[in-house]
Amino acid sequence: MPAIKNTYLKLLFSMFLLPAFFSCDKSKEPVSATSKNPNEITFISLSNIGGDQGDYKIIKVTKDSIHAEQGITARQIHKEWDSAISMQTWNNLISPINTKELDVIESSPSKQSVDGIDETFQIRTPKKSHIYVNSYADTLHYRQLNLFKEQLNLILPTEYR
Predict the structure, then answer these.
(1) Residue 22 near residue 96, CB atoms below 8 Å
(2) How far is the C-alpha of 56 from the C-alpha of 70, rounded, in Å?
(3) What's 156's DSSP letter?
């Protein structure tokens, strides 16, 4: 008898819930302000990870905030820093980056396998996410990422540079 009860409950559940899922209309979802310009930068992160003791430094920047963390895994050391940023600061940070050239920046092989440190950039737009590993080898296109790093160093506390 209990098996019959469960079957009836499953059937009843399916009859009422499945139509609710299929009746959802995605065209009525509000369009966010960031999706109006598909080439607008919405997020940038820079990380340096590797080394024989598991060193890491990760910096994440959005339009209104910056988050930095660093540490050494082998010694269980970890510290973080957060700060709000102004729209002017955000514009200064992203001004060197030409979104039309993001597809041509080339990555290089990882150096972590030989206890090296990998520099990784992630740049997001509503249209696409770009990830570069050790792109400093691409001397032709790396300049804009290096200029971003210089602008970033102007606002980071000394211990996170």
Answers:
(1) no
(2) 5
(3) S
CA–CA separation, 120 and 131 (whole Å): 7
How do residues 39-84 score in pLDDT, each as one tens digit?
999 999 999 999 999 999 999 999 999 999 999 999 999 999 999 9
- Determine contact, residues 48/118, Cβ cutoff 8 Å: yes
- In angstroms, the CA 66 to CA 94 distance is 13
Q: Kindly report the number of other CB atoms within 10 A of residue 145's CB atom.
A: 22
69: its two tokens? 């963390």
CB atoms near residue 11 (< 10 Å)? 10
Q: Phi, psi (5° rounding) for residue 19?
A: -60, -30
SS (H, E, C) 72-111: EHHHCEEEEEEEECCHHHHHHHHCCCCHHHHHHCCCCCCC
Any idea which residue has 């990422």 for tokens?
A: 145
- Give this prediction's pTM: 0.77
Quote the CA–CA distance of 108 and 119 in Å, as a whole number: 10
* Whole-number percent of the chain with pLDDT over 70: 78
Q: How far apart are CA 32 and CA 30, in angstroms?
A: 6
d(CA 144, CA 96): 5
